[in-house]
Design goal:
The complex is a heterodimer of chains A (291) and B (122). Chain A contains ten helices and eight strands. In chain A, strands 1-2-4-3-5-6-7-8 form an eight-stranded mixed β-sheet, with helices on both faces. In chain A, strand 5, helix 4 and strand 6 form a beta-alpha-beta unit. Chain A is globular, with a radius of gyration of 18 Å. The two termini of chain B are 18 Å apart. The chains are: A alpha/beta (291), B alpha+beta (122). The interface between A and B is medium-sized, with 23 and 21 residues.
């Protein structure tokens, strides 16, 4: 068997975030409308590997995923060893907008999953003009804690083992074994306390229940796609959010779980491609309508 | 309901190997009926059906018979496919020294999934 390269190019970007220098890992593939991808809590941009290898997407979209600070191949900022990592809504928003500015992305399409889906709702509300369209995967406005997150970060329990075990049931039952375990491997590789720190945003700071109805889909189209087997952000939660936002479209994806783009790309693309098609058509209409 | 656990877990060499640092006795309640499962270095050594007078265990997993039946079905419906899904719906109570349960969470999930009909979901 001969060697083969994927079309994905990875680079390290130096960027000041929250008043500190950061070294961030950024991957991309394809050309066209920028499609900025946000990974889930405790994982990294590898979750979007299938999108970046999908010609039906990369022929029209420039697909970009960055590893958040502390995640994947992005480093934590200097001094991290004496900090407790905790992600906040304000930091997450700043991070996404700063990366967009640094990469000179002109009104990208945003796609975010789980915590990425949550911040997608924040961005749809607060920065609709900055995006062509927003796609929230496994996006809910809030989740009640249902287990003690302290188990995720303590020296007498292996962090990688417990983080993957916590989320393993969130993968849908029909996921191919290879993609299921690739998805869980990313969780096993997370740094100590990083998944837990992300969940501070997901379960506490990022609660947007009281404001989600103010999202104006006239300013930025919003699509929600959620997996049927997700018990973290349940289909009911996603449908509840969609009901409160006029013009928001929600689809429940049969057989899929919490990590659709990573756990079962083949099935996920059946839902994503039509959405990207519609966004492209809408953008073309809008461009044609401009004087 | 749990009789097959010993044979099925012990027949899975990879699962036993992952449990090699796990020695404990835990309790499961299927509705009103308690069961005590003893594990030594990843191998199930006994599965005892109650009732018991004074059962000792490191932790307990308690749910209704109907919920366990859905969990143990070949293709569990959404919300019943995983121990954490049951906990999320507040229909499974995990009580006691949960450090043992959480440190070996993958083992416990995969061990109990062995009770599904052969060919069902892991």
């Amino acid at each position: 068997m001969s060697a083969r390269f994927e079309p994905i190019i990875g680079r390290y970007m130096h960027l000041d975030l929250f008043g500190k220098p950061h070294r961030l890992y950024v991957e991309e593939a394809g050309q066209g409308t920028p499609l900025l991808c946000l990974h889930t809590a405790g994982s990294d941009g590898r979750q979007y590997r299938a999108l970046m290898n999908e010609k039906r997407i990369t022929s029209r979209y420039r697909v970009i995923a960055f590893d958040m600070p502390w995640h994947g191949k992005s480093s934590p900022p200097a001094g991290w060893h004496n900090e407790e990592y905790q992600l906040t809504s304000a930091q997450y928003t700043t991070m996404v907008l700063s990366v967009m500015t640094a990469l000179e992305l002109d009104r990208p399409v945003l796609i975010g999953c789980s915590i990425g889906g949550r911040i997608a709702l924040h961005l749809a509300l607060e920065h609709p003009q900055a995006f062509r369209a927003i796609i929230g995967l496994q996006a809910g406005a809030h989740i009640d804690p249902y287990y003690d997150v302290n188990f995720l970060h303590r020296p007498d329990i292996h962090g990688g083992e417990v983080c993957a075990a916590i989320v393993s049931g969130l993968v849908g039952p029909d996921a191919p074994e290879k993609e299921r375990w690739e998805t869980l491997w990313h969780y096993m590789q997370g740094g100590p306390g990083v998944f837990k720190g992300d969940l501070y945003f997901y379960k506490i700071d990022g609660d947007i229940r009281s404001r989600v109805a103010d999202i104006d889909t006239g300013r930025c189209p919003l699509f929600l796609l959620s997996g049927e087997y997700d018990y973290s952000c349940t289909p009911e939660e996603t449908l509840g959010v969609a009901r409160r936002i006029p013009g928001c479209e929600a689809t429940i994806m049969k057989g899929l779980g919490h990590f659709p783009m990573s756990e079962n790309p083949g099935e996920f693309l059946k839902y994503l491609l039509p959405v990207l098609e519609r966004i492209a058509a809408t953008s073309a209409d809008a461009a044609a309508a401009r004087p | 309901m749990l009789e097959a656990l010993k044979e099925r877990v012990n027949a899975d060499a990879a699962l036993v190997r992952r449990g090699r640092y796990l020695t404990t006795t835990f309790l499961m309640e299927i509705g009103e009926m308690p069961w005590l499962i003893s594990i030594f270095e990843g191998r199930i050594v006994s599965v005892a059906r109650g009732p018991f007078v004074m059962p000792s265990s490191s932790f307990a997993l308690r749910s209704s018979e109907a919920e366990w039946q859905k969990f143990f079905s070949a293709h569990p419906p959404p919300g019943s496919n995983d121990l954490m899904a049951l906990i999320r719906r507040r229909v499974l109570k995990a009580e006691g020294d949960l450090k043992v349960f959480m440190a070996h969470l993958r083992y416990f999930k995969e061990a109990l999934a062995k009770l599904r009909p052969i060919g069902g979901s892991a």
